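Researcher: I've been going back and forth with a colleague about how Iron complex transport system permease protein might be arranged in three dimensions. Neither of us has a model we trust, so I'd like an independent prediction. The organism is Virgibacillus natechei, in case that matters for your notes. Sequence below.
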Amino acid sequence: MGSSRKKLIILAVIAVLLVLLYIFYDLSGNIGYILPRRIINIVAIVLTGGAIAFATSIFMTVTNNRILTPSVLGLDSLYLLLQTLIIFIFGGSSLVMMNSEINYIISIGIMMLFSLLLYRFLFRGEQNNIYFLLLIGLILGTFFSSFTDFMQVLIDPNEFMIVQDRMFASVNNVNTDLVYLSIGLIAVVGLYFMRFYKYLDVLALGKDEAVNLGVPYNYVVKRLLIIVAILISIATALIGPITFLGLLVVNLAYEFLKTFRHFYVIIGSMLISIIALVGGQFIVEKIFTFDTTISVIINFVGGVYFIFLLLKENKSW
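Model: Here is an independent structure prediction for Iron complex transport system permease protein. You can compare it with whatever you and your colleague have in mind.
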């Protein structure tokens, strides 16, 4: 058994133990009510963590850069803009905000539409490349964020509190129907991804090498970026934006597994992501007693690790 395979088994065992700890720790009282809620929360965490790690692994390979995450495309900022815009126009008691299924479908639909239009526009000419796409995504993300702040200043303070709840990731109010819907969407995306899995190891060598080895570069990259957009949209709409999670878990997977084969990196990233989210949620519930959110802990650790990566790369230059 190879070293990477053994490490994956270790990660899988830790993830399973943490999941069992979360489900059964201090289980008392009305078990018939508490147990299903904990299980649905865990399923939401696994789906979100897996989707973010999966998408970020693909995104880093496509961009050939390990400090970039799909957040630079502005999808997180677009999600917050949508939530604020709905409240700004219809109010916090509108059907769209009260019905989580409608809100979920609208948010995913608009985020996917935005990604498709962005890719279609930017990949129309041969002169445009992936870095131009990232630049435009960064600019649009900043614009969405600024416009969101502007509307939040104008809305009613009570409705601003609703927006605040949407700005931070939470797995405590996940709708069961959203989880089932997400499972179906991720399964469809996973099956579609299998057509392009064989190209990832070659794409990691860079554009010129991939083209020379016969990879239809633009065709494959466009489809992979659409898969990334769908996965990030699902994860963000399910429990909220977690900016640094993907950066953290994928880089840890590379460092821990010491391999560039995507079979191991993708599975390892997903397992580390599940460990981080389940562990983070356990800390939020049992230690901080809901005084903070899981995104605060993940973003703090991820932000520190991001600075570490920048300093490390700076020394190598």
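Researcher: What would you highlight for our discussion?
Model: I'd start with this: DSSP finds 14 helices and no strands in the chain. After that, consider the following. The two ends are 37 Å apart (CA to CA).
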